[in-house]
């Protein structure tokens, strides 16, 4: 490459850099009046602020309400993105699992005949683990307890071991249903909320920001025009009229965009997806637990009703629970007469007054 072409290319790159710097400087200089105007409004030094159309105000209120609803729900439902949100945390378990994994790797490495086999052992994935959920934890401890009971010889222990095994299987299936619920909520609810926030609502806030900047520019231009000297009044008037047109155009564009965003964001079907996933899981879990409890040994619903049914009966009739009959109390319970602390008859509350 000749020296002339080199200098020509260098000059061209320098010219582009100068143009870029000039544009940025112009943007910065244009932003100074709007920033100053913004600070004056926030401090209450300026009261002459252009009013926005009522339609624009109503749309911004609607957009803010939608975003607030989405954000509040995501703050809660994002827990479904974490598989172990209901899992009891035990550090000893993690240490034991790590120790077992390392120990098994070491044993396999001692049997490796070549460097290639050793590399394959180290790069191989570890053993498959159950998901860390509360139901899987219950399933695991029930299974271990059942295996312990199997070593005992009595009939009752064998029966308990059998039902512990059934309970383990039930909890495992409930855990699978919970993970399916979580997957549905992640894809059909959380992901859609995030998509609306990152795309639709972000688009609405972008045009609103543009309107705010145009409004600040217009109000700053009006203030400068009011304080302008006669020789600069014509120039500032043209700038003010231009700023007013840009402000009006930006407002109209923002109204259209916000209407489109509101039309494309519908929370009702998303809420239905959330409730449907939860309903399916709870129905599945209740069905499996009822199946486990059916024909449970020792159950006799007629002679020995469960505690939950007793509470339901009391709540249904809205009756207070009386104290035991052999208990003495000094206070009066609502709906029941007071029981005296003394076995002696009560004395009259009135005393004989002397005659005058």
UniProtKB/TrEMBL annotation:
CDD domains named among the record's database cross-references: BAR_Gvp36
Region (Disordered): 292-356
InterPro entries noted in UniProt: AH/BAR_dom_sf (IPR027267), BAR_dom-cont (IPR018859)
SUPFAM superfamilies: BAR/IMD domain-like (SSF103657)
Protein known as: BAR domain-containing protein
